[in-house]
Amino acid sequence: MSSSFGKNLKISVFGASHGTTIGAVVDGLPCGFTIDETALLRFMKRRAPGQSLVTTQRKEADQPHFLAGLVNGQLSGSPLSFYIENTNQHSKDYNNLRDVPRPSHADYTARVRYGDAVDMRGGGHFSGRLTAPLCCAGGIALQILKARGIEIAAHLRQIGAVKDKSISFTEPAMADLQKAGFETVAMVSPQERLRAITYIDELRQTGNSTGGIIEVFATGLPAGLGNPNFDGIENRLTTALFGIPGVKGVAFGSGFEGCLSTGAEQNDPFLLENGTVRTLNNNSGGIQGGITNGMPLVLQVGMKPTASIAAVQPSFSYEQQKNVELQIKGRHDPCIAVRAVPVVEAVTALVLLDFLLDHNIQFN
Amino acid sequence: MSSSFGKNLKISVFGASHGTTIGAVVDGLPCGFTIDETALLRFMKRRAPGQSLVTTQRKEADQPHFLAGLVNGQLSGSPLSFYIENTNQHSKDYNNLRDVPRPSHADYTARVRYGDAVDMRGGGHFSGRLTAPLCCAGGIALQILKARGIEIAAHLRQIGAVKDKSISFTEPAMADLQKAGFETVAMVSPQERLRAITYIDELRQTGNSTGGIIEVFATGLPAGLGNPNFDGIENRLTTALFGIPGVKGVAFGSGFEGCLSTGAEQNDPFLLENGTVRTLNNNSGGIQGGITNGMPLVLQVGMKPTASIAAVQPSFSYEQQKNVELQIKGRHDPCIAVRAVPVVEAVTALVLLDFLLDHNIQFN
Amino acid sequence: MSSSFGKNLKISVFGASHGTTIGAVVDGLPCGFTIDETALLRFMKRRAPGQSLVTTQRKEADQPHFLAGLVNGQLSGSPLSFYIENTNQHSKDYNNLRDVPRPSHADYTARVRYGDAVDMRGGGHFSGRLTAPLCCAGGIALQILKARGIEIAAHLRQIGAVKDKSISFTEPAMADLQKAGFETVAMVSPQERLRAITYIDELRQTGNSTGGIIEVFATGLPAGLGNPNFDGIENRLTTALFGIPGVKGVAFGSGFEGCLSTGAEQNDPFLLENGTVRTLNNNSGGIQGGITNGMPLVLQVGMKPTASIAAVQPSFSYEQQKNVELQIKGRHDPCIAVRAVPVVEAVTALVLLDFLLDHNIQFN
Amino acid sequence: MSSSFGKNLKISVFGASHGTTIGAVVDGLPCGFTIDETALLRFMKRRAPGQSLVTTQRKEADQPHFLAGLVNGQLSGSPLSFYIENTNQHSKDYNNLRDVPRPSHADYTARVRYGDAVDMRGGGHFSGRLTAPLCCAGGIALQILKARGIEIAAHLRQIGAVKDKSISFTEPAMADLQKAGFETVAMVSPQERLRAITYIDELRQTGNSTGGIIEVFATGLPAGLGNPNFDGIENRLTTALFGIPGVKGVAFGSGFEGCLSTGAEQNDPFLLENGTVRTLNNNSGGIQGGITNGMPLVLQVGMKPTASIAAVQPSFSYEQQKNVELQIKGRHDPCIAVRAVPVVEAVTALVLLDFLLDHNIQFN
């Protein structure tokens, strides 16, 4: 498959939804940094399933077991390796799926690509469960970045028709965002949050699902990270972000809306302030020509509605070679975007750390 | 810099807006394929500047000169290399820009990254002019794909408030799209096309600019191309597409809009028809789990409004270390999205050919 | 660090000599292949320490624990991940080495590169112990290749002045080589084998060590694998082989000796025999222009003498900032080349399988 | 094909022996460095053909024409691109070779790999002529390294039975080596040089050829460049060096000979001298664990005898499908190792500069 990314910081994930374990190898983390394991678990818990009505009822502790790369809590220079146990898979819910592919899942394409021996129970290696190791790796990256004054935080900009309070692109309220990250739904506005929960729960009760748009902010980045053309901030970030199951789109700064506006409205004029260069607006999302300009990095990630819905859907049977109706069992998130917020933060952190390592910035 | 992309088919671009030449090396094109040079020039002309009121008045013939890799019009197996002359650059229009960076351009970030020796006249290596070699390379890829029954065509889905006629995701009208590609503005609907031209020309006259959303379709792709996680269709396509200057977002299938909809509406149920698997809808845009499912590939690319506008804008002077007002001279596209349509087709073709080469599909 | 290699088949190793575990993730193995675990353990045992007088007395069972990628003994398509426990490390033997770097070890260079937090007990991540996961991954690759008629076998061509019986380059005695692989010292000639054991044991008793030259043969390869220039058989093989600690040189076919000979003696004339092309000699070692020609692949790998010797050696103390004498304790192989034979076979198998995957050759 | 290498400094070569031009794109050279074109041409002339009896009589000026990346002799940050014209190819000498593959050339393997449309006149893209662009790119890298105190020089350690004076591994006589580089045969000892010339000329007259062993030294490298495992100094150097046609082996420090010696003789004890760490010997060739230790880098490269010899050789005809005798016409080097000396220096320089860029060392 193609389960690794990164240039200086290489992340290689393994595991399957209904296998024994999932995990990752992370090569290139700065030697000597001491991990705060409590903070790491707290971060990973934001993604863990089984915590509210608006997420799947599959319960997993998501406790990483470190195999290598840590000596007394300190990164030892060699690749960090860890696994997380799968304890709560219900494989028998997936018995009928081996023969009948689920609509808008990878069951069919995986089988065309890898043959019928491919393990697709619960989505197999294509499952959102694989984002747990990304959160572990990225949770560590977030700590390393934070120690250098770089903060990353995301919120649910929109779910269905429910829009969170809009966040300033030039001075994003990072503390508010970080606080919202620990709420049931990561919205800054309590009113909108409640509306979103209600909306998701209604869909859940009718066996339906929704998607959402996650917006990410990174502050404290130095100007000059990145490259033009094919290895810029956008290129490496999208390569990694599209590795999160369910991502359908990625846009930077004012995104697609900005593309329908005019240059006079969208341009970011420069301002020299006490010897520091900043811009008046930040519709560029902190990037020009693939390179950071020192303003906050801003991006949006579109997550599709959960494909596993309770309604009966048309599909076909490989064995019978005829069209059949499919009823999906199992426990599913009514809105995968909810739990994807820390995943998007984690992946953003891994990519930004990779760019800092391009510049050989020391971390200890 | 970072001017190459591709796994089996490696494209390496060179040149600068105001240098002598631009060009590329393309390594991995199938040996023995005979290029139709007339068709290639016709394709490249769609991108070339100076052809209408809604594009820049810089006139360039964009004639590729092949240095290697072609023997009697046939690809010889070794890397294809070519250059295109820059004949119509007006470098003196850029004299004041060396000291005063243009808002929403890469002048500032390039200088932070590479030092003040970096050649940024006319955007330097960051310029949209570098998309001419991409069109030459991609124009050849389009011919190779076409010979295998794969067609790629794009249109301007929207410019400002002007929306083109919507195109079916399951059976896109490829002939209409291809015909629209040779119009002044690549819209299928003549009415909307006229409205778009009028809108762009109005902006041009007031020294303003606009962006746009390009939508791309690829038909005839086999199911089973691509990979999960970090090297799927979306990952490799976005890596390449964000190499086009001005791209702010990329989304697949029903894109960001689909993310705000529900699973019941968005899912693509399967249908077995005469032994062939297809889907009823195509909100997935032809991809599930990073792998093609045999339905048309559909994606949207957001292009930002041209940053070079005639209005006076705030910036600063490196030399004087103070804020100054900047008036940009030179000739600029009022809407770079217009000429970007063939570029997006070209880049899509290069990436899809790269995926076909993953599977060692023979071409002659 | 930089603990991964491979294009289609990506191997990422982790662990340290005195950590809890070592292991690897292997991404790209063909889905559906059933592993023979007994044969795998038998192969891995050839590398395992503690089995004779001519190897280290550190005893390790080298039992892989599979974390992911196997379902009922069958490769499931997703990355194979496994770990091996370190049970017999004696870290206290290394207490003085933190301050005093061992000559011809990586203690000093690792500390310059990664800072003083780098874990170098027993060689850390630079240790030959990391070749155990390579043997596990490569042992599986050997089985997959064998199922397609490709055999790989190596012997100790020379240790000190003791030369094994020379092996034909055009028709290597694969069965003899494979049998020799299970001997104490992998030489085909019983007489030379005994001489080699005696020589190594004498060195061991005097606290000295030796190196050796390993010669590898691969038969059954199709013609046409590989590429010219920078991604040919030699390039990818050497990238991987120099990842084995202690390798000082790699040469193909008649190697350095052939370079001192003449074209008339070294050329490999072609012969068409029953429609099949072969060569009369095989001084090219089965490769021309980076591409296999269908003849046996032949290469030599030079392994340096074990750097850990019992004699007192000059070094320096970081703390005292002065020259000191160092006496290395611990248990060491008197000739690492002895146990490196299966490692070299394993790495060769991984790289050749990677090349077969370039050509999308199916395995099940 | 696979005509590029490098991580931070990416070199992509193009062209064929009997095409119009050869050339390269070099992406990642430090912005702002001013090239000494006179010194560059002097360096490239060392490789150019037609200069003595011991080299081919094909005469080529090897003048690079820069297409992009240079502004007034200064590197502008964007990829450097250049071509060199082929003016003196005699393609008709190769007419019979299309049907009858030359022994120990890539004619046969290229055709198996790429089909019969592949252009192999004069060796096509596999030809030693492709080393001219490597010398241009590497000649610039040598200048950049020199400006930072890093010198690279190589000599012909041995041709046939003729051995050059041995060079100290701890304090190589760089000035002598550099002077020898401009001699007909790059040997330091005038006596041995004469013997080598006589030997090569005798072979030439009898229609035979020879190979040779080139030894390279690099001084002034900081300790701490490189990585363990699969991306160390040896791995990246061999990947690039095996891209030179005719290379059969690469070894570091005391090489294969050292592997047959003992640890007591081969180890490099440390010595702290005025606060600087050095080693007493340098059998490690300046590398431990893939990382430089600050001592001179030493390596040997084995070049095979020229495969094009005048004697009649057995081969076969594709058309007639039978064995035939082949007489090779054309002008050939009796010893390709002679002209390969600057090529090996150039490639070593490119790789070392790539490693320096890993560490973001600034050059201007």
Automatic annotation (TrEMBL), chains A, B, C, D:
Name the residues that bind NADP(+): R47
* Binding locations of FMN: H125, F126, S127, G289, K304, P305, T306, A307, S308, R331
**Which Gene3D superfamilies does the UniProt entry name for this protein?**
Chorismate synthase AroC
List the catalytic activities from the record.
5-O-(1-carboxyvinyl)-3-phosphoshikimate = chorismate + phosphate
Task: Return the cofactor note field.
Answer: Reduced FMN (FMNH(2)).
Q: Which Pfam families does this UniProt record tie to the protein?
A: Chorismate_synt
Q: CDD domains per the record?
A: Chorismate_synthase
Alphabetized, the UniProt keywords read: Amino-acid biosynthesis, Aromatic amino acid biosynthesis, FAD, Flavoprotein, FMN, Lyase, NADP
What are its E.C. numbers? 4.2.3.5
What molecular function does GO assign, one term? Answer: chorismate synthase activity
> Which cellular component, as a GO term, is one annotated location?
cytosol
Q: Does the keyword Amino-acid biosynthesis apply?
A: yes
Output the InterPro entries linked to this UniProt entry. Chorismate_synth, Chorismate_synth_AroC_sf, Chorismate_synthase_CS
In what pathway does it function? Metabolic intermediate biosynthesis; chorismate biosynthesis; chorismate from D-erythrose 4-phosphate and phosphoenolpyruvate: step 7/7
Can you supply a Gene Ontology BP term from the record? chorismate biosynthetic process
Q: Does the keyword NADP apply?
A: yes
Q: Which cofactor does it need?
A: FMNH2
The Swiss-Prot or TrEMBL record describes its family as follows: Belongs to the chorismate synthase family.
Subunit relationships: Homotetramer.
Q: Which HAMAP family match?
A: Chorismate_synth
Which NCBIfam families did the record assign?
aroC (TIGR00033), PRK05382.1 (NF003793)
Q: What does this protein do?
A: This reaction introduces a second double bond into the aromatic ring system.
The protein, known as: Chorismate synthase
- Whichever gene encodes this chain, its name is aroC
